[in-house]
Structure formats: structure tokens, C-alpha cells
Amino acid sequence: MAQALGAPALAMGATFLAFGAAVAEAGLSLPWALLCTGAVYGMAGQLVLLQLAAGGGAALPATIAATAANARFLPMAVAIAPLLGRGGRRWLVLPFIAITPWAAGMRVLPGLPDAARLPWFLGFALASWCAAMAATAAGHLAAPLLPAEFRAALLFANPLYFALLLAADAARPGVAPALLAGILAAPLAFAVGGAWGLPLAGLLGGTLAFLWNRLR
Amino acid sequence: MSQADAALAFTIGIGLALRGCGLLLGGALRPDHPAIAWASAVSVATLAAFVTLAIAAPAGLLATVPLAARLAGLAAGFLAFRLLPGRLLPAMGAGLAALLLARALTG
């Protein structure tokens, strides 16, 4: 638990604080913010969902875009599943497969005895989740009390966080083409506009990057 | 139920399904299987497009911050992250401080 509340959790907490503030800025309620953090629990999808849902977009394109942004849940779960054993209790981790606990789990779990892995992961994940919920609530409640320039800076925290994470990730095999394709597809998303622009750009850019990686 | 509530409910359901599929497939599919690689590429591209738009053409309150200030914040964040590898928090602090400073300077 102490590991879950260390430096990475502070950076993660800052993004959930900013998310809570962004939800308040968009005029959505605190329960909406808490349900989004607690049950979606994937900041990339949360932000995309917020942007499209708060803009008055239809539910379907907002869902597709948020799901595409969080599509990494699938490979993350595939990768960590063998480390959590084969018993039914491993399903307890289902809502907690998210970037911060997953990255820590992939680093720590291989070095633990089999019996200790699931309890360690659940302890880490629950502590991270509680911190995320508290930060979301704090951001939502504090946002109306802050001056406009600080609220704008808070809204900038999340794109900056993901820009840094993507840059750090770019060295991994296959990531750089998808990153570049997403950046190049952004004008398409802007031109298409509305709720469909982003999912279209992500699907097109990601598919082209996937084909590029396969064919070269 | 509003469109925002419906989108949230659907996203929660599909997110849990994705995680559940991953747990089921773990051990059966390799992490480098083509279907997994495609999902990863779409995820990265969607996030990259989102970040690009959020910085270059934001909506709402962030749109009141001049583009030069947003780019200064991004550059300062990257610079700090390069000087302090793996340290996200100081990099974010540097980026946000640069954004506020650049905004004050550019009015």
C-alpha cells in the first residue's frame, strides 16, 4: 500500500484532481465524476468521454472514442493475467486493471511467490483507486473556488501528463508509428468535428500504424 | 437518462468487458498477437490525436490560454522530463508553471 501512495501516485493523483476540476467546469455533477473515475478508471478514456459527452455529443460516438482510448485495457489484461494465477479470485482485479497498478504489477509480481501476488496487486490497486476517487472529489469541489487562470492550468495538466507518458512510451516496439499516426490524424478529427472526429481519427491512424508495423 | 449518462454507462460496461476478455485470453493469446497489437495501436493513436487536439485546438476554458503559452508549457514539460528521466511530477510542475508564466507574459 505504501508503494501505491508514492511518487507515481502523486502524478496520477494530479491528473484525477484535474479531471474532477474539468468535470465541474463542464457542468457535470460530482456523482458523475466519481462514477466515471471509479468504474471507468482509465484516464485517457475518461477525458475523451468527458470532452464528447459534455459537448452535447451523442452517446454512441462518445462511447466508441472513449473505448478506443482505453483499448489498452485488453493487452494490459492479457499480459498481467498469467501473473495472477488461474483461480476464480483473480476476477477480483477486474475493475482495477489500469495503467498505474498494471505498470507496478508487471514490475513487482514476477519477483513475488505465487500466493503473494494476488493480495499484493489488490492492496496496491485498492490504495491507488481510493487515492484517485479522493483526488477526483477534491478537484470537483475545489474548482469553483479557484481563479480562472488556475482552472485553465489544471485543465492543461491532463494533456500534458499523457503527452509525457506517450513520449516515454515511444521507445517501445510499435508505439512510435501509432503515436505519429495519431498526431497526423488529429487534423482529420478536427475537420470531421463533432463526436465522430476523434474515434475516426484513432481508428484510421491506429489501423494504418498497425499495417505499417506488420508490412515493413 | 441524458446522453452523457448513457455514454458513461456504455463506456463502463465495455471497459469491464475488455478487461474481462483480457483475463480470459491471458495465457491463450500472446501479448504480441495481431488482434492485441491492433488494439494497442488504435489506443495509442486515439490518445495521441486527443492530446494533439487538446493542446492545439482546445475547447472551453483552456481555449482562453494563448497557443504560445500552451506550447511553452508543453516544451517546458518535455525539457524537465528529459532532464529528470522518469520523473513525471516535476515535469508536470514545470509545464504548468511555464504555462502560467507564459500566459502572464502574453496577457
Automatic annotation (TrEMBL), chain A:
The keyword Nucleotide-binding does not apply. InterPro entries: Brnchd-chn_aa_trnsp_permease (IPR011606). The chain crosses the membrane at residues 91-109, 121-143, 150-168, 188-212. Pfam families: AzlC. Keywords: Membrane, Transmembrane, Transmembrane helix. This is AzlC family ABC transporter permease. It comes from Falsiroseomonas tokyonensis. The lineage of its organism: Bacteria, Pseudomonadati, Pseudomonadota, Alphaproteobacteria, Acetobacterales.
UniProtKB/TrEMBL annotation, chain B:
The keyword Membrane applies. Keywords: Membrane, Transmembrane, Transmembrane helix. The chain crosses the membrane at residues 6-29, 36-55, 88-106. The keyword Membrane applies. It comes from the Bacteria. This is AzlD domain-containing protein.
